[in-house]
Amino acid sequence: QVQLVESGGGLVQAGGSLRLSCAASGRTFSRYAMGWFRQAPGKERDLVGTISRDGSNTYYDDSVRGRFTVSRNNAENVVYLQMNSLRPEDTAVYYCAAKSTAWLNGNLYLTPNDYDFWGQGTQVTVSS
Q: Which residues share a beta bridge with 26?
């Protein structure tokens, strides 16, 4: 089992940047592919991006590709979401999630139901 804690959210102006962190407990972090999702009020939880266990593969939703970057540091049990050129429509609660998988470079886990563990979320608000 792994526990996830997100941090780094806040209020930022359109065009600005934020970096979210997701710290994982335990010594098995490298056994999990990781995903970032977001949920705006009244909407479903949507995929932002994913990263494989070894960090070699990433995937991004079209809405953030080229602006957001997912990375991870397995030695420090942390996954990051670097968000640049933020837009008001990026406003949401952002969640990190972990999926136990045997595949080192698998990352095409694209729906919330694919994931085993979730953090509590961190609010990101982008003002226009």
A: none
Q: Write down the pLDDT at residue 19.
A: 98
The string of pLDDT tens digits covering residues 31-69 is 999 999 999 999 999 999 999 999 999 999 999 999 999
In DSSP notation, the chain reads ---EEEE--EEEETT--EEEEEEE-SS-GGGEEEEEEEE-TTS--EEEEEE-TTS--EEE-TTTBTTEEEEEETTTTEEEEEE-S--GGG-EEEEEEEEE-S-TT-----SGGG-SEE---EEEEEE-
> Parallel, antiparallel, or unpaired for β 68-73 and 58-60?
unpaired
The Cβ of residue 83 has, within 10 Å, a number of other Cβ atoms equal to 25
Cα angle 49, 23, 118; round to 5: 60
66-98 pLDDT per residue, tens? 999 999 999 999 999 999 999 999 999 999 999
β-pair type (122-127, 10-13): parallel
